[in-house]
Amino acid sequence: MYNDLFSIGPVTIHGYGLMIGIGIVLAFIAGTYLAKKKGIDADELFNLTTISVIGGFACAKVLFCIVEWDSFVKNPLGTLGSSGFVVYGGIIGGILLCALYCKMKKLPFWKYFDTVLPAVAIAQGFGRIGCFLAGCCYGRETDSFVGIAFHNSKFAPNDVKLIPTQLFSSAGCFIMAAVLFAYSRKERKDARTGALYLIMYSIGRSVIEYFRNDYRGAIGILSTSQFISIFILIVGIILFVKPDILVKDVKEHVA
C-alpha cells in the first residue's frame, strides 16, 4: 500500500524489500535458537540459510518464468528482471539445495530440515506484509468490512475494495510458526516438524488461492500453486506419519 517508505539521498527504501530483509534476519535468529536446543552447528545453519535464501530466490524466479512462459519467450530479460516470483519454487528449490549441501558436507539433513522450516514460516509472514505494502498477490473484489482499497499500487486495481489476502497469508504464516515452535519444544522423530510445515502450508496456500485475484497460472481448474500443493501435502503426510520411509540417513549421521 505504501511500498516507497522513505528515501536517504538517492536511495529509496521499499517496504517489500525491507520486510523480506527483516524476515530473513528474524528467521535466522529463530533458527539459531532452535539449533542450539537441538545441538546443531550454528555456523552450518548460517551456510544453509544463505544457500536457501539465494537459491530459493533463484528457483522462485525460475518457476515464475515457467508460469509466465509466453511472456518469458517474448521478453526473457524483462521477465527475469520483473518483481515476480512463485513461492513454491523457492521452497522446493531451497530444500533441494540444502539437501545437496548436507549430503556433500555429510550433515544430518533431516535435523536441519526440522530446524529451518519453522524459521522459514516467520520469514514468509514478513514477506507477505511486504506483498501488502507493494500491492501484489492481491485478493478478489469485496464489499465486506475486511476489504481494503489500494490507491497507488503498480499491481493491484486501485480505488477498489479487495480482500487483503496478503495479510491473511501473513497471519497464517505467523500462526504456523508458533505451532511449529511449540511442537518442536519436545523431542520428535526426525522430519516430523518439517513435515508439519509442509502439511499446514500446502493446505493454507490452497485455501488462500481461492480468494486471490492476480494471475498465477493454472492447470485445469487449479492454480499452479494449488496443483503443487497436492504433492507437497502428500509428501508432508508421508513424512509425518511414516518418517522412516524417507528418513534413511539419520542413524548414519547420529552414530
Radius of gyration: 19 Å
Structural class: mainly alpha
How much helicity do the residues have? 55-70%
- In the sheet with the most strands, the strands line up as 1-2
Number of spatially distinct domains: 1
**DSSP, total strands:** 6
Q: Give the assembly state of these chains.
A: single chain
Contiguous helical run count: 10
Largest sheet: 2 strands, antiparallel
How would you portray this structure in words?
With 255 residues, the chain is mostly helical. It has one domain. It is built from 10 helices and 6 strands. It has helices spanning 15-38, 42-67, 69-74, 76-80, 87-105, 109-134, 165-183, 192-209, 224-241, 250-254; strands spanning 4-8, 11-14, 148-149, 161-162, 218-219, 222-223. It is globular and about 50 Å long.
Topology:
Elements: E1 4-8, E2 11-14, H1 15-38, H2 42-67, H3 69-74, H4 76-80, H5 87-105, H6 109-134, E3 148-149, E4 161-162, H7 165-183, H8 192-209, E5 218-219, E6 222-223, H9 224-241, H10 250-254
Antiparallel strand pairs: 1-2, 3-4, 5-6
Helix pairs in contact: 1-2, 1-6, 2-5, 6-7, 6-8, 7-8, 8-9
